[in-house]
Recover the amino acids of this structure.
């Protein structure tokens, strides 16, 4: 399994922006779909976005479409999540994941990052 190291996140005011990074160490992402999930307090973990490393095809949850952008840098073996127009409902721990079925579903061989807190509050 690939090891994923996340960075970014923090506290931002409503309407603000943040960028999360997810870097693969040890092994490359290979041809995995790589994505982001989030989990808010008291809620189940939910899909946010994913990108196919081979051709860059992206998928987004309806709740973030038009505000979040997922991108990749294959040379740096890193995937990014640019988050704009953040609102308090985006507050959650965000997880990077490599290996998704259908671009949305993690499975037993998926690799997860350590999680990054994003808090949107005034």
């Amino acid at each position: 399994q690939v090891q994923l190291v996340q960075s970014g996140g923090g506290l931002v005011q409503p309407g603000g922006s943040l960028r999360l990074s997810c870097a693969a160490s040890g092994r490359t992402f290979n041809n995995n779909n790589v994505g982001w999930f989030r989990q808010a307090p008291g809620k189940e973990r939910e899909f946010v976005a994913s990108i196919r490393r081979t051709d860059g095809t992206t998928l987004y949850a309806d709740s973030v479409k038009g505000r979040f952008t997922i991108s990749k840098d294959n040379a740096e073996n890193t995937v990014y999540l640019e988050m704009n127009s953040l609102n308090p409902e985006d507050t959650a721990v965000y997880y990077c994941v490599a290996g998704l079925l259908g671009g949305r579903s993690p499975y037993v061989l998926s690799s997860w990052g350590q999680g990054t807190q994003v808090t949107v509050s005034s």
About this structure: The mean pLDDT is 93. DSSP finds no helices and eleven strands in the chain.
